[in-house]
Design goal:
Elements: H1 47-50, E1 72-78, E2 83-90, E3 95-102, E4 109-115, H2 116-121, E5 128-130, E6 136-142, E7 147-155, E8 164-170
Antiparallel strand pairs: 1-8, 2-7, 3-6, 3-8, 4-5, 4-7
């Protein structure tokens, strides 16, 4: 049995805060650097402010439990200040080619590829990567073990304010 008692002399708890805002709001405030609606996005990075429509895999903005995809071609969108993560199941000694194409005048994307453990540790030990200034990022990887690998589609730092479609192909 748990007994809870109110102590009259105890101080009142502070008001719940969200990124220095006094309380979470129903709608985002698009000016400034606050996350008023407590959804993890601030100002121009919030879809409530920038009008961006994420693709059907959202939320997939972190390497922890990203959606699983299999070989195929996917028409996707990436929003400002965003990144996309995907889990790809692989078979040992099988070779896979991952290609992302996009309009270079809209955005610059880079690809990073991890084992599941390295993705969750967010270290820089990548199994493969493709970082260029071209409108196509591509790498080929021969799986060293059976299991899940994590693909990170990252907006290059200089292009954080852009929204753009891209095509992901896994063969």
């Amino acid at each position: 049995t748990l007994t809870v008692a109110q102590v009259a002399a105890a101080p009142q708890p502070e008001v719940a805060a969200c990124n220095d805002a006094p309380m979470c709001k129903e709608e985002e405030i698009c000016e400034g650097d606050l996350d008023a609606d407590c959804d993890g996005n601030k100002g121009e990075c919030d879809t409530d402010c920038n009008g961006c429509s994420d693709d059907y895999f959202e939320p997939n903005d972190a390497p922890f439990s990203p959606p699983q995809i299999t070989p195929g071609t996917y028409a996707l969108d990436i929003c400002p200040c965003n990144m996309d993560y995907f889990t790809i199941p692989m078979v040992k000694n099988q070779t896979y080619t991952v290609t992302v194409t996009f309009n270079k005048s809209d955005i610059d994307l880079d690809l990073y590829f991890w084992t599941q453990a390295n993705a969750e540790a967010q270290n820089t030990t990548y199994a493969a990567k493709s970082v260029s200034t071209a409108a196509v990022e591509k790498f080929t990887y021969k799986a060293t073990a059976d299991g899940n690998y994590v693909l990170w589609v990252r907006v290059y730092d200089g292009a954080l304010g852009n929204e753009a479609p891209y095509t992901l192909k896994i063969q």
